[in-house]
Amino acid sequence: MTKAPWQNRLMQTGHGAEQWLIEWWRLVHLGAVILVLTLSPSSYSRESRRVLARHIYLNTAPILLGFTVLCALVTVVLTRIVLVTALSYGLSQYALQVVIRVLVLELIPLTAALFVALRCTIPDGAELTAMQASGELDEMRGRGIEPVRREVLPRVVAGMFSGITLAALSSLVALVVAYVAGYGFTLSGVAAYTRLFGQVFSPAVTLIFVLKTLFFSLAVSLIPMASALYGMHGASVRTSAEMRGLVRMFALILLIEVASLVGNYY
After folding, report:
1. How far apart are the C-alpha atoms of 229 and 223, rounded to whole Å?
2. What is the DSSP letter of 41?
3. I need a labelling partner for 221 at 20 to 30 A (CA). Which of 69, 243, 249, 257 fits?
């Protein structure tokens, strides 16, 4: 007996929802495993420390200078635009506050996370996918080596370290550049700028900023690895799994950003 079209659509919807829940559960499970391994002293043997240091260096050092210089240039341009616009409306006293809120609180953490994803964690996930396809991870399991501890943990930790480092250093550089653009090369504005900084970075805003940067870094580091580990069932499925991973990553980043905006401004 042929099923009605609505029954087929209902079954497809149910299967899609089940697959969606399974994928998110696997992501949460992998995150929990990574957290436990990160806090476990056994994960930091001499060989593991060497691999972790290599991944941290490769994911941070090559992009740190370029991203910081880019943020400094954007800060100069944005600060100049905001200062000129605020001056024309008689609101120059609020110009630097707007720059700090828009650039440091919102743009830099988001840009740093996306930059790390495109330059580091997505290529790392593709490399892990290739290892999964070639059977290298199964060979490790056969030799008694846990792939999550040996291959996934260093990439996730390195991605998080890179994202947090880029966001922190670029925020500091942006604050310095904004001060120079607003007050020039003089110390006369340090007191006013410090007071302004304190008005923007209240304890609640600072906590939200730190948590947002941390969750951004975790999202862009963990999701490509989860897609590589759990989405590999053949060449045709691999591309679909990678695309689903990207969609999940951007959706999670958007959700974190919306939550931070609600916390900061409502």
Report:
1. 10
2. G
3. 69
